[in-house]
Write the structure tokens for this entry.
Amino acid sequence: MTISAPLLTLVSHICVGCGTLACIAPEKLIDVSRWVKCALIVVSGMIISTLLLLLLLLASFPFDVRVIYACGCVGALLTALKIRAFHRHFFHGSTTEAVIPVLRVFVFVGVAALFLWVVVAALCLPSVDYDSIAIWGYRVRVLIEEKTLYTDSLRDPFRIAPMPKHPYFIPVLEASFCGNADFSYWACHLPHVLFYIAYLSLCVGAAREWFHGSMRWLALSALVVMPAPAVQWWLEGAREPAIGVLAVWNTYWFIRWLRKPTLLEVCLVAIGCAAMYHVKVEGAVLAGGWALAMVCSCISWGEARRARIHQTAFLLLIVGAVAVPWLVSKSLIPPSTQDYDFTEGFASGWGRRVNLIFPVLWMAVSEIILRPELYGLSPHLALGLLLVSFRSISARKLFLVLLPLGLCLCGIVAIYIVRQEQLGPSRNATFSRRFICVVPACVLASCWGVSQASRHQRFHVTTRETSL
Amino acid sequence: MPEFTKVIHERIEFSDDEEKQFIGSVVVGSVLASLTCLGAWVILRNPEFRAWITGLVPHRYPIAFAAERQLLAPRSIAIAGAILLICSAGVAFWKWRRFLPSKLNAKHCAVGYFTALQTGIAVAVVLNISFYFYRVFHRLPCQLREDTVLTHWVPQAYPHAKMFRELLPAGTRVALRAEGGTFNRYLFSALSYPIACYYADSISITDPFHDKQWLSLSSSRHVSVFVHYDPFSTTEPLVLKRCLQQ
């Protein structure tokens, strides 16, 4: 495989992201770090063009990577037309801060080690977990070979094709990086490297905005030196880490929306929700969670309620517009002899499962506390920070920020309680794979809670120093 | 409520004394973190204690696949780190604080400790993964061939599917009966693509072409080959039977 096809797709996605950023007035993102803007370029670029290609595929158009290239051209054109706005995004209001280098060195060493591992794993190692080979890799191969979703290879009930009703965002994204060339693992891994870079950028940006001094480095070490986002996509596949990054993305923009309800934040949350919905069921639960959190904020909030209601309706509209075509397409897939009913067993039998609740809850707690090779000490810190700042955070805001994550966490625990009966303990090995969807976003939310708690005090210090 | 811009644009300047104090505190924190790792390594070399700690994570059951991946887990180091984190927080915040040098700042010590330990875990994870590949394949990850890695992780289905793809032309429709559960069936058929595999689990192995399911598949899906796949057979993992009557 030549390097040109993946690089061309990469450049196209970046151009779409640049075009998106150029279309946003710089004043709207004046208080947003440049790191977050870099993440915005990467994430929005990949999501917008991939969702467009996916919708075309669902509408029976053939898979054609030139759609991505065309999106890239449009993005580049928009950037060129609005080059001044784009320039102002990055070269406006430059701030520097006196930094003592000791902590920076620590964080840099950890990030460099993990990033190096990500690059080596992406370029040198194939995907080896069962789902990556049997479900997702197979779909990418079919897309590249047959160029359509409406093929017997994916929809014939007699054909051996697992999980025909799983959505297609990740296969389309990965196939777009293979371009018109053959399937290759390193091309399929490239978007996940980009997701990881976006995760790093988002965390660095959020920490820069919310903290200063030693607290910033504490937050950064909790978020960016957490091994899970770097190693989990290689260990157990790439879907859940992608959802995890999108959850961090949505948490960040949702926090901004809670503070100041504007349409821009809603659009960014909406594209995150739409992409998550099209990745996997955990993503669908999270997307539903954010929609619910926005609805709850409309009900509970006094100030700017009207704007919040309009924006929530807008979010539901965007997510619905992207979700409905897949629901229609999915309903046309004939039932297979090997269909796995995901909701089976949830409706009844909870009385006899009482004795399973404690073991699964302990499994969840031990996952957070005793898996340092995945999360480091981040969950310890997050819990500690929440405990320390509990009395100072707005309970309503914290509830809304944690609502989608809590909903997904409850869903994961519920799945495992039901599955203990149906499939036995052999399924428990996949527990940590699902946790990655929520843990980084939970740590980010905890960091935000602490920044909220200490903001009042900091403001007074700043004011006093200024007046002096 | 302060404006957000004011918060992010504030600047901190340290005086020389403050800077020295800060660096001193962070260094103390990081030394504590190093001692934590060293102490944990020494204590947790005891296999019984190590097994007890691992047993606290109930979903890490001891099957070969999970045991392989436990090599990636410097869990022992971090559990001890967490315990010492609590101890050092106690030292920093409670009455024992008077035993520390007066110039140290407890908060900065804790930050230094956490950051150093977190980084230590991240670096240890990366080193462990690389060392794992070297131990298993005697090569670094960047020197490995894709085939080698896949054959190690999918020791039956990958080489069998490769052989299968060489036996039949692309696009051939086969009725596949796979033994050993759905895991092997799906892995094998996915790795065999572009050969099209159809469910044929109830077809008789001895006389497949007079089976009701075969007749149905051959008439509706134009299947021409029957494959019996037994991944654990050491003599004949793949048995192909071609129907000549079509």
Remarks:
- The beta strands of chain B are 173-178, 196-199, 225-229, 238-242.
- Chain B has a mean pLDDT of 77.
- The longest helix of chain B spans residues 106-137.
- The CA atoms of residues 28 and 121 of chain B lie 18 Å apart.
